[in-house]
Structure formats: structure tokens, C-alpha cells
# Entry
Amino acid sequence: MSSPLGGRRSAGPPRLPTPPTGWPIASYGTYGEAQQAVDYLAENEFEVGDVTIVGVDLMLVERVLGRLSWGRVLGAGAMSGAWFGLFAGLLLGLFVNHGFALQMITGLVLGVLSGLAFAAIGYRMSRGRRDFSSASQLVAGRYDVLCQPRTAERGRELLAKLSLGPTAGDA
# Structure
């Protein structure tokens, strides 16, 4: 098969977003369960290259971590700036013959000051509209395991065994 730009198409996932293909062979409530099912298929020498895990009913979940205050904002800005300043000081220190420690200290101080300034400006511009910190995560309502038709029936059989759990003969 060739690509639209000419040449051979490499194996692996498509470069452009495309809907998944295959037949559903199982459905799970969590990604961990779907991943465990695919691991089970791999352990049983199933062609896992035919398998796709698809998250269905996607949701953006934002978990609130805490209230923001000037102290937290400035502290986070100072820490962020300090890391950047140390990195910049390290790079500058590599290109000078003497004064490596001075370059590191200068980078640290300038990084902290700029981190404080940018954090304060950003927080002040928000005018209290978002006085909390949070973490966002994309999750699915369920996770379907799809398989190409040529191996779907065997995949269903193996996952049915997994759902039954260990039997007396497996011990």
C-alpha cells in the first residue's frame, strides 16, 4: 500500500486521526481492566497487533486540588523560575572558562525574580475568576477492546476464559 505522498506506507498506527476498526470482543469499566485483558491475550500468544482499546463516552474530569492564594501563586512561580534559572545558568556556565558558580547563582536569582513577576502578573490578570488549582484528565465511561475480524472469535474465547477466573485445572 502506498501513501498519498508516494512511497511505501510504514506499518503501525495511521498518521492521521482515523476511527478504529474491528469487532468488539470485550468491554470494561476501567482502562486498567482493558489493559489487563490485552496482557492476557499477549500471554496466550494471541496476535495483539490486531487489538485496539477504545475509550467510549469520553469525559473531561477536572479535579479541584485546592484554593489559590498569593502565597501559593508566588511560591509556585519562584520554584518554576528557579528551575529555569538554574538550567540557564548551567548552560551559560558551560561556555565560560571561569565563574561557573557565579553563572549558576545569577541564573537562579534572575529565574526566581522572573518567575515571581510572571506568576504575579498572571494571577492579578485573572481578577479572582479562578481562585483554585486543579488537574484535568480525559476519561472514558467504558473501554472496548476491538479486534480484527480474522482473529476476533479466538480473542472472545480467550477473554471469556479470563472473565471466568482461574479454574481448578489451571493450578
